[in-house]
Every structure is written in structure tokens, then in C-alpha cells.
From TrEMBL:
Stated name of the protein: DUF2817 domain-containing protein
Organism encoding this protein: Euzebyella marina
GO cellular component, one term: extracellular space
Pfam families: Peptidase_M14
Phylogenetic classification of the source organism: Bacteria, Pseudomonadati, Bacteroidota, Flavobacteriia, Flavobacteriales
Active site as annotated: E240
UniProtKB keywords: Hydrolase, Metalloprotease, Protease, Zinc
Gene3D superfamilies reported for this sequence: Zn peptidases
């Protein structure tokens, strides 16, 4: 484990917030020292360069990629922090580089990143294109995979604020998945390795953010990249960056993902994967979807002479407006889950809570939601 002081020193200060675009990544890559080998590995639909970064001399080959969904940037920030750490004088950094060779694509979907969308310019979800490989970005990923022949793959993503851990009121700040390789979700040798690495990361994180680590749904889908690479007998891990309290910019979660990457790389470098138990993987609670961003209870307090007790779930829609990311509140009514918790819960029958809500810059939109519903 590295200290908070060291993390603040190696944190890439040029990239913060949620809206991370191609030009920022190019600037980071341009400033990397010569120990990094930067390769142009292809282009996006709109012709933006996709680059892979290689470092290390070890026999264990680790391939990771981030922002295949353009609006999922937390792991990209963590990868940039990793770039800085690996060229530090830290003993762990030297061990990783001596025992591992890393190949990293920090931004697979630069067009989606610019537009702040999950999909690419052709409106294709690259994480559902593993079999067809209909998109240039999908072919870039597969080409690098086949050429590098990794021993491990890290598939780096963000998840929505709706996820909680199990049935608890704890947000799923970080979630992991050892993707299935068949419909039966059986445990192949490669999937077993994925599970053990996740157990190692979970044990580390429990000491920092206890009870806020979840396990992602492992339903099999051959069109997903993780499932495909697992089918090809390469241990693959899905990383999901989630919500930390009051951390909509995901700067706290960024650090937890960075620490998770370090833990996994350290276990690989020291050949300690077998020290961890598969059985403990299934003890990690599976994610549920019981959160909303704002839960208004007793919302009759928003309207005079309304005696009905109303609960209004509100979810932020991340919206790019004039090049700036804004969080726009919208009424949220999911069909497949029960809403139990709010990252912010406002009891509208309490004057103090109501005044707190009315002080929010987005209150007019919430009031409009209420007026529409009532």
C-alpha cells in the first residue's frame, strides 16, 4: 500500500473531473519519459489516433484498456496516475517493471469521449462488438490483444450511481467481475485466476472502504469483450468505478482504482495469485440497483394543501452542454428494481431539509418534476 502523500505526488494533475478527452490524453503521452514506448495502433471512426503505451521488461504480460465507453473516464485518470507511479523510485514500481510487461490503451473510444457518450460515432457499443468487430476501435483492441498475447487482461470501466452493495445502503464504489466463458458460468482455469486476483484486490480495499466493494453480474454474453477474452483462456477482470459519497467527479474513486491496479500488479509480479481463494470471490456481495442520486420523501411539502405522502426518486443525467458536463436532475422510474436509498435524501416535511433543497442550483428542475407528477 502506498501512502496518501505519495499518491498526491504521483497523481496526474492535468486530468480531473469526468469529461476527459483525446487531447488531454495526447498531452499526457507526449510528456511521458523515454522508458515508455508509445505506439499508434489505429484510428477511431473520425480519425482520432488510438495509442498503446508499453513499459516493463518482465515475463508476465498485462494488457489493459480504458474508456471503450466514452463517458467512463475514471479508470483513464487512474491509468494516468499509474504512468507516473511506474517511473518513480518506489520499490513496488521497480518490482512491477522487472516482473511484468504492461500494454495499456488509455482511451479506446476517443470519439465517444469527445461526445461524452457510451457508444462510438456509429452508435455501436464497443463492449458488445467483440464477435462482429464491426468497428475500427473493436479491431484495434483485438489486433493489440493478438499481437501482445497477454497473460492477463484488465477491462476498465465506470458504473452508474444507482448501484449498491448487496441489499445494503452502501454504494458500490468499486465493483469487479471475473467474466464468464460459457452459458453455465463454469470456472475455467483462466476464470479461476481472475477470481483470485479480485479476491486480492477486495481484501485490500476492505481495509480502506469497508463494505463498498461489489461483484458485477456474471451473466454470459459472448459479444462482450471480457467474456470473449475469457473464452480465449486469458484471465480477464472487469473493473467498475462507482460512486463515493459526495464524489461526483470521482476523484476519490480514481484513487481506489489506482490502488486496485497496483495490488493486482503486485500479486502478479510476486507470483502470489495462488495465495488467494476462489471461494472468497463469491462472498463478495453482488451489486443491486437500489440507489438514486436524490430521494425526496414526504414530498407533499413541496406543494401547499397536498396531503398525500409522495416519494420522488431523482437521478442526474450527465449532459454535455457547450463543452461542459452538467448534472441535470430527472425523474427516475426504473421497471426492474426497487428504489430504497438516495445519495442525498431530503425529507420535505422538515423545514431544514426543504430549505437545503431550495438552496440547490437545480431546485427549479426538481420543482418542475414535482409539479408534473402532482
Amino acid at each position: 500500500m502506498i501512502s496518501n502523500e505519495l499518491y498526491e505526488k504521483i497523481k496526474e494533475q492535468s486530468i480531473t473531473g469526468r469529461y476527459v478527452v483525446h487531447g488531454q490524453i495526447q498531452e499526457v503521452l507526449n510528456n511521458l519519459p523515454s522508458s515508455y514506448k508509445i505506439e499508434h495502433v489505429g484510428s477511431s471512426v473520425l480519425g482520432k489516433s488510438i495509442n498503446a503505451v508499453k513499459i516493463g521488461t518482465g515475463k508476465e504480460k498485462v494488457f489493459m484498456w480504458s474508456q471503450m465507453h466514452g463517458n467512463e473516464s475514471t479508470t483513464t485518470k487512474a491509468v494516468c496516475d499509474l504512468f507516473n507511479f511506474l517511473v518513480s523510485d518506489d520499490v513496488l514500481a521497480k518490482s512491477i517493471l522487472n516482473h511484468c510487461t504492461l500494454m495499456i490503451i488509455p482511451m479506446l473510444n476517443p470519439d465517444g469521449a469527445e461526445a461524452y457518450t457510451r457508444v462510438n460515432t456509429n452508435e455501436v457499443d464497443l463492449n458488445r462488438d467483440a464477435q462482429d468487430r464491426s468497428q475500427p476501435e473493436s479491431n484495434v483492441l483485438r489486433d493489440v490483444f493478438e499481437r501482445f498475447e497477454p497473460d492477463f487482461c484488465f477491462n476498465l470501466h465506470d458504473q452508474r450511481t444507482i448501484f449498491n452493495v448487496g441489499e445494503s445502503n452502501k454504494p458500490a464504489t468499486v465493483s469487479f467481475l471475473a467474466p464468464a466463458h460459457d452459458e453455465e458460468r463454469s470456472i475455467s482455469p483462466s476464470r479461476a485466476i481472475s477470481m483470485k486476483l479480485i479476491v486480492a484486490m477486495n481484501e485490500m480495499l476492505q481495509g480502506i472502504i469497508p463494505n463498498r466493494i461489489g461483484r458485477y453480474d456474471d451473466s454470459f454474453n459472448a459479444n462482450c469483450v471480457g467474456d470473449t477474452f475469457q473464452m480465449l483462456n486469458t484471465p480477464t477482470i472487469l473493473f467498475e468505478s462507482g460512486h463515493s459519497p459526495n464524489d461526483y467527479m470521482r476523484e476519490q474513486t480514481r484513487e481506489y482504482i489506482f490502488l486496485s491496479l497496483l495490488k493486482a500488479l503486485n500479486v502478479i509480479a510476486e507470483s502470489k495469485v495462488e495465495n488467494f481463494s476462489i471461494e472468497k470471490y463469491n462472498l463478495i456481495p453482488e451489486n443491486s440497483k437500489h440507489f438514486v442520486d436524490i430521494l425526496l420523501i414526504n414530498a407533499d411539502g413541496l406543494k401547499e394543501n397536498n396531503s398525500s405522502k409522495i416519494t420522488i426518486p431523482v437521478q442526474f443525467k450527465e449532459t454535455l452542454i457547450n463543452g461542459s458536463l452538467e448534472f441535470v436532475p430527472e425523474y427516475y422510474n426504473p421497471e426492474d428494481t426497487e428504489i430504497k436509498y438516495g445519495h442525498l435524501t431530503i425529507d420535505c416535511s422538515l423545514d431544514s431539509d426543504l430549505q437545503e433543497l431550495k438552496a440547490k442550483e437545480y431546485y427549479p428542475l426538481i420543482d418542475k418534476i414535482f409539479q408534473t407528477l402532482s
